[in-house]
Design brief:
Helix 2 (about 50-65) packs antiparallel against helix 3. The chain is elongated and about 50 Å long. By secondary structure, the chain is an alpha+beta fold. The chain has helices at about 20-25, 50-65, 70-85; strands at about 1-15, 25-35, 90-100, 110-115. The chain is built from three helices and four strands, in the order E-H-E-H-H-E-E.
């Protein structure tokens, strides 16, 4: 198994349960982990590996141009889009962190993790 991780991407998005979150927006931090079987492709060929620039663009488009009330729905959409659009990826793990919280307490962030596998 080969893993490629892109960590701590920052996007300004309009996601959240409350209407003001979807209107004003806020920063989100995201990690993507993509797994592929090392036997499924010639890993020395660029087009057979994982194009991280393409992965970033897919995530950026969803984070910045769509609105979700629930972070898990956003994570599922990102993971499913990556499985659909990135060749040879067998599994995707998405972690989304939301530091600006409508909670009165000392919290660093809330994180949602989504794990999706390519159907067999």
């Amino acid at each position: 198994m080969v893993k490629v991780r892109i960590t701590n991407m920052m996007f300004y998005g309009y996601h959240g349960y409350y209407e003001y979150e979807r209107e004003q927006g806020q920063k989100f931090y995201l990690d993507a982990e993509l797994k592929m079987d090392e036997n499924s492709a010639d890993l020395n060929e660029f087009e057979e590996g994982i194009n991280t620039a393409r992965v970033y663009e897919i995530i950026k488009e969803l984070m910045e141009n769509h609105r979700f009330q629930v972070m898990s729905a956003l994570g599922i959409k990102i993971a499913d889009s990556l499985l659909e659009k990135v060749k040879n990826v067998e599994e995707v793990i998405i972690r989304i962190r939301k530091p600006a919280l409508p909670i009165s307490g000392c919290i660093d962030y809330i994180e949602t993790e989504v794990i999706r596998k390519r159907p067999q």
